Amino acid sequence: MKEKLKILKKQSIKYPLIIIGMILLVFISNLYLQWCQNELSMELVFKFAFSWHTEKFVLGCFVLMIVLLFLCSLAGSLVLGSVLYGIMIGILGFADYQKMFYRTEPIYPDDLKMITEFGLLREMIGTVPFILILLIAAVALFFFGRAMYSSRRLSKKIQIIRFSVLVVTVGLLIYISNFNNSNNLLRKAYDRTALWIPYSQKMNYYNTGFMGGFLYNLKVEAMDEPENYSQENIEEITHKYTKTAQKEKSSLEEQPNIIFVMSESFSNPQNLTGVTANSDPLKDYYDIAKTTYSGKMLSQNYGGGTANIEFEALTSFSMELFNPQMTTPYTMLIPKMIEIPSIVSLMKNQEYQTTAIHPYNTSMYKRKDVYNKMGFDQFISEDTMKHTETIQNNPYISDESAYKEVLDILQEDKNPQFVHLVTMQTHMPYSEKYTTSNYSSRSQGNKKAIDSYMQDVAYSSEALKQFTIALKDVKRRTLVVFWGDHLPSIYSDEIKAENDEVKMHQTEFLMYDNQGKLTGKTTHDAVSSPFYFAPTLFDQSGMQMTGFYQMLTELEKQVPAFEKGFYYKDKKWTKTLALNKTQEELYEDYRLIQYDVVSGKNYSLKTDFFK
């Protein structure tokens, strides 16, 4: 009897301690995630948790407790489940800090799909931290798996409790995954005090906490249905612009080659206040730009987001029109779609040979699947390229090599070619790529990286100039759209403070014609968005416009560039979009068509609007 009392006494002490320990673990882990999100400021963390947003902090702890209980019940071990939980939270917080540091935006749920991109992750965080994280994760998973195997020896009573907790937590996690459902109780609990800021995910996470922001970015419809969406309205829009487009017939005797070049992180550092250099690294670029249609492009992101800029350029759909949670259409939207109209599908319908080239692996942003869905005939990656030369210590295939790959394709003269090239030479990191640099900057912070970056874009500019010279020997008319996707994440807080947000989101772009016949070749200070590239090129080169491109051409005349929080109209930048009646009608037509394709009934796809 005494022995039983001793056991009961130990259990009465043990179980409360376990519960307190788990609550403490969840509490500390939530503070840690907030700490990483707030750029390692303990002051902001404690104000968020205990003064400003206590209710949202508690809700975040509730979600984390469900995750912890799920892992413990899955492992059949409180200790190993807690250890794996701690490691997962540690890596998640570190990743969030890194992304905030390099791109000034937080980790999204969809970013977790990048976890298998070992090569890129190693290059971004460094070899030693990467190997260390990999080893810790591997050891944790090994012991976690062993615990699951050993859990079959647990008593029947413990097994019942374990599987009950597992079923309940799985059900709760599935329910939580529908956070953006208007009837979701957790969302309603957050909505009591949360001020969601959809136009700025950085501020969204800041105001609602890491957990609130993370939940907000779980799965959601690409676009909410507009009030005036109907088959009748879509058919009216498609007929109106298609009729206008058909009045202007193509003036071309032969279909031209079309080359899209999205140059990784290509921009002019000296566009920024606080950055100067001993000479111009973009001299070769401007030798071309000053002879043709060129200017500044508005990038959706700073320091990253390449796939989103690519999505806009190929589809002519705008990220600004999406719900803010639709952070990466390449991974979140296109794989679910049956058909996605783009310049690729348009060229295919006109008997073009379509090729995508990316001097890296095929899995980044699901490009292999996305390119297949868009209709590319072939995808040439680092594994299938003939030209793979690099420059000095740069680990990435050079732009010069990539352009040689394009020129090889253009030798095929039977069919016109559409080639979409996404370069890698100027990808981060920007230190120790080159043994010598011809450029020395004067800047407020991070001089070494900026100098190396200048050398990078100088090589890129030189390669582009040589490419355009080589194109003059191509018999078929060849049109090129070249642009930088975003600025590199190398600029110090002092430099960012001296420049407005627009400057941190503008890169160089140009359109080139090897026969020099573009109608806008005298314009060198144009302002544009990437979703306008294809219709602008068609308009300026005399190619036959589609109804869709006609609509965009008319919209561009009214609103030349826009992204969330950045609107260029009447030669002025504003944070909100104020439109007159004509502009509002054009913008609404565009929004209805984009909704119809990405979230609606696809009425427009049954017409000739995109053909």
From TrEMBL:
<keyword id="KW-1133">Transmembrane helix</keyword>
<feature type="transmembrane region" description="Helical">
    <location>
        <begin position="124"/>
        <end position="148"/>
    </location>
</feature>
<dbReference type="GO" id="GO:0005886">
    <property type="term" value="C:plasma membrane"/>
</dbReference>
<protein>
    <recommendedName>
        <fullName>Sulfatase N-terminal domain-containing protein</fullName>
    </recommendedName>
</protein>
<comment type="pathway">
    <text>Cell wall biogenesis; lipoteichoic acid biosynthesis.</text>
</comment>
<feature type="transmembrane region" description="Helical">
    <location>
        <begin position="12"/>
        <end position="33"/>
    </location>
</feature>
<dbReference type="InterPro" id="IPR017850">
    <property type="entry name" value="Alkaline_phosphatase_core_sf"/>
</dbReference>
<dbReference type="InterPro" id="IPR050448">
    <property type="entry name" value="OpgB/LTA_synthase_biosynth"/>
</dbReference>
<keyword id="KW-1003">Cell membrane</keyword>
<dbReference type="InterPro" id="IPR000917">
    <property type="entry name" value="Sulfatase_N"/>
</dbReference>
<feature type="domain" description="Sulfatase N-terminal">
    <location>
        <begin position="256"/>
        <end position="542"/>
    </location>
</feature>
<keyword id="KW-0472">Membrane</keyword>
<feature type="transmembrane region" description="Helical">
    <location>
        <begin position="53"/>
        <end position="71"/>
    </location>
</feature>
<feature type="transmembrane region" description="Helical">
    <location>
        <begin position="160"/>
        <end position="177"/>
    </location>
</feature>
<dbReference type="Pfam" id="PF00884">
    <property type="entry name" value="Sulfatase"/>
</dbReference>
<keyword id="KW-0812">Transmembrane</keyword>
<feature type="transmembrane region" description="Helical">
    <location>
        <begin position="78"/>
        <end position="95"/>
    </location>
</feature>
